[in-house]
């Protein structure tokens, strides 16, 4: 009987795999994606299931009915795929139903394989021989990807890609590989000055086919921030493996838990890359040297670490390679620059940035730059001199685009190696430089900085459109060397006279000038204060009457706003961001209740409570943002008794996971133009009085997965021109009143899996220009194409399937 079942199993498995591979030419892109997903699941199972020495015999040794059930799944899967191939393109309902059946089939196979087969695998030492542990980890991540809502983080330690052009590093790569692969090497330090290509070299190493073949999926890439702790590194590695709720009470606990994790995922080889490690993090590296066979560490640093006695010093580019890199940066098509290569002395970052700044400039600019450097302005006399020389990359901005240069210098307000929301920057620039409220010019400045290689714009989502706010859906990143350049250029004047004042406070050690000159005011318009996790919020007084933008970068669990905020009569923008592992508890909020000129508040990764009530009394506040905040009872109190935020035009909630309802009082914000509630997975209802927001133009509810419906009063929002309900999985019907939105121009509804039909009133949306959705939803619009002749349907693939594919591949 076992032989018969074995034959049936092999036949059923092979037939399903063949039919899945053979029908991936179906017209439906969703079917193609699901079949590719199913193919990867089957191919992952195949080598283990039919391992001649173990797999099949182990399966057949279990109760016969379990194996027969597995065969049943395989045979029914074959029939399902064949049925999918016969569905007509216009039959939306059948396509939707059968797509869900494919998802269930894949989940059933995974569940059977994971829960049934693993019972007998746990106690056997054959695990290490056949790599079953790797398979379990992959299956765990697959299932996590299937069930994790869009917007959650994944792959936090995934190896980044490499630049399009790399010169002069091939020999270094081979030498680095040779040293790394020696048996006695556990830790290797790649050292060199900032911007010399250390990170690029290590990215090349991780993307090398030989290294990938040896270490497989067990290559983990972590950028180490300054300062950092083992708790931060552990958090990233646990998140990478799908464990998003780990909390560590101490560094010792984080070290122990991380070592246990490494033992659990251990295979023959494992590589941990720590990028940009500073000298004060030497103990962190030492803590990560676990005695695990096959486990190796590579770190990059601008410092030498004699303690580790395993350093690879990266030399700079030779003249020919440097010339190639400069030509590529300055002349994307062709052309030969004047001989300024030698003044960059082979530093790749300097060549790239300087080349980009001179791109398109006339011969005069090239000659004057060459003359400056020839007169003794060496670009690499020392680390600090290099930063000063790099300021040549923004010289052209002085006369051509002076505001863009100011915007570049403002980037020094934020911590190194952290992504900055583009909206946070634009909030500053709107108030500091009297730019447009809609974001056109502020976005243009960001793109100008990006085109000069001074920042990088990273889109948050793939379906970003210009009509919704230009750069709103972007993060901004910047190389640490360029950030240091911004800080250096902003710090040339005496402290009291600086336009921007950037301060770091370690523990409770305040700068001497602050303690000794308490009564002397500072003249800064931008004040940025960064504190570490040991800071106790014991503030000295500070006279800063001209501050218009206050940025507080914090790492401690408890944080009190400084009392001297009350004296900042000109303050227009307040941004408070916690970079700790958990949201910081924010205190002393009443201190901002007296700031009559405050227009924009942005709270990020904070825990707030009912003490937020003083904010509601701010008469001139125009924008209020909560990002990754724990709101607790902040909005449960009755706010209808008195006018609340009478001039608020923008309200934003993003990734506020405990937000389950909005108070009815918010519907009294009669001047509100933009309401954005995104990735708030507990929000299940909107206020019925939403239609009272008569000036609302922009409504985003992206990835509010529990939200069940839009209120009928939405039909009163006659100025509404943009709606985003993408990934609102629980919405099954749209209200008939949506057809009354006579100004609606853009509707985004990708990933609305529960939506079965559209109301007939959609035919009345004559101003509608664009609908952004997935393929399945696009068929719901077929009946309205004749009535809405100006409508463009933009079909976008589902990001969740792409995330799945990245994990299983």
What spatial form do the alpha-carbon principal axes imply?
globular
Strand content: 5-15%
Oligomer: single chain
**Helical residue percent?**
25-40%
Distance between the termini: 36 Å
Tell me about the biggest sheet?
A: 13 strands, parallel
Quick check: average pLDDT? 78
Number of helices: 25
* Whole-number total of structural domains: 5
Label the structural class: alpha/beta
- How many E strands? 24
Spatial strand order of the main sheet: 9-10-11-13-15-17-18-19-20-21-22-23-24
Rg for CA atoms: 29 Å
Low-confidence stretches: 115-155, 332-336, 376-385, 465-469, 800-809
Describe the structure.
Helices cover 35% and strands 13% of the residues. It is an alpha/beta fold and 809 residues long. It folds into 5 domains: 2-147, no CATH class; 170-313, P-loop containing nucleotide triphosphate hydrolases (Rossmann fold), CATH 3.40.50; 401-490, Arc Repressor Mutant, subunit A; 493-637, Leucine-rich repeat, LRR (right-handed beta-alpha superhelix) (Alpha-Beta Horseshoe), CATH 3.80.10; 671-678 and 687-809, Leucine-rich repeat, LRR (right-handed beta-alpha superhelix) (Alpha-Beta Horseshoe), CATH 3.80.10.10. It has a 13-stranded parallel β-sheet. The protein has a 5-stranded parallel β-sheet with strand order 2-3-4-1-5, with helices on both faces. Helix 13 (282-287) links the parallel strand 3 (270-275) and strand 4. Helix 2 (29-49) runs parallel beside helix 5 (92-116) and helix 11 runs parallel beside helix 12. The radius of gyration is 29 Å and the shape is globular.
